[in-house]
């Protein structure tokens, strides 16, 4: 299927819904796909088709069996999508990726509270704070090339040798789109007896990805993602990891559905994934996620990546025309997803985002976007300076354009026109 001839907008709900601006109602341009994507029609169709037969899962009537089967089969859809091994890995359903990373952190805390977790300065807080709040967590620096500093990584692996059990790194930055060398990092982690987790929240909807087979040096041990960033619109996400690790530990949350047997003196917990999924499952969210992932697979992540690459290059080329713009990590060879963060000289990031939204109907991201330490680094702020910004009430941050598979070159033109108008307004 050639994506060149495919108008993916027709599969999306409301990509250009008219919204009220200071210039009247105009079709919106949605460039905040990193925060959450718009929603796929086929996913919502699946959701609405389920409603008339919606029922409790795992009970005798056939509707229930049908729904339960689709719910359970989503695990295989996920395992296949991330190149996991269905015989050795499990997909645990979570509320979102943040919950998945908290489950992982909790597992590692239970395994050894004295260990050191290695995370990176590039992370979203979801892949830093869950470990930092529980265990000693050290940050791998960013090098001169704008990517993870592998020398610093090795130094930290050496320094904490024997204590590092988990390395946690993003699969792609939600700020700059930079992709860290996670296979190389996996190889090194394994050499030092650690496992590696890759946060693929910003990967699964943009790039082909594989965990690679168990036993390979470059095998990725754990991954997690959120469905709402992959066009499903509803809650839902997953943690994927090895059964033989996950079976040993306790869940993050406790309640019904996670035990095989319990009396007042004994508890026999169920096996993963059930052990980690207490309470009533998010059946509708999970099945909708399944449909969204299947859609991405059908279009082909290769095709999506190719098309988005063209969009990204055009966006970068046009953004460089804008006066007084700073683009973070422009022309970095490591940017592989279509996100660009920038600042306009002399205009507060909140003002830029507000003007784009209120005057032009263009939605972008602004602020630290959950990656506070990375944004601080990109802006060259010391801890003291960042804290001063916080105390002054001005905050610090960037503006971010993040494209999705349905965005178009015409939308980029509309955005550039608006951005130039804003940049010139202060001259
Ligand atoms: C790289 C990355 N990881 C994790 C998250 C957290 O995702 P969620 O809020 O869906 O759990 C985000 C959200 O923007 C992100 O960009």
From TrEMBL:
<dbReference type="InterPro" id="IPR015424">
    <property type="entry name" value="PyrdxlP-dep_Trfase"/>
</dbReference>
<protein>
    <submittedName>
        <fullName>Aminotransferase class V-fold PLP-dependent enzyme</fullName>
    </submittedName>
</protein>
<dbReference type="InterPro" id="IPR015422">
    <property type="entry name" value="PyrdxlP-dep_Trfase_small"/>
</dbReference>
<keyword id="KW-0663">Pyridoxal phosphate</keyword>
<dbReference type="InterPro" id="IPR000192">
    <property type="entry name" value="Aminotrans_V_dom"/>
</dbReference>
<dbReference type="GO" id="GO:0031071">
    <property type="term" value="F:cysteine desulfurase activity"/>
</dbReference>
<dbReference type="Pfam" id="PF00266">
    <property type="entry name" value="Aminotran_5"/>
</dbReference>
<dbReference type="InterPro" id="IPR020578">
    <property type="entry name" value="Aminotrans_V_PyrdxlP_BS"/>
</dbReference>
<dbReference type="GO" id="GO:0008483">
    <property type="term" value="F:transaminase activity"/>
</dbReference>
<keyword id="KW-0808">Transferase</keyword>
<keyword id="KW-0032">Aminotransferase</keyword>
<feature type="domain" description="Aminotransferase class V">
    <location>
        <begin position="29"/>
        <end position="415"/>
    </location>
</feature>
<comment type="similarity">
    <text>Belongs to the class-V pyridoxal-phosphate-dependent aminotransferase family. Csd subfamily.</text>
</comment>
<dbReference type="InterPro" id="IPR015421">
    <property type="entry name" value="PyrdxlP-dep_Trfase_major"/>
</dbReference>
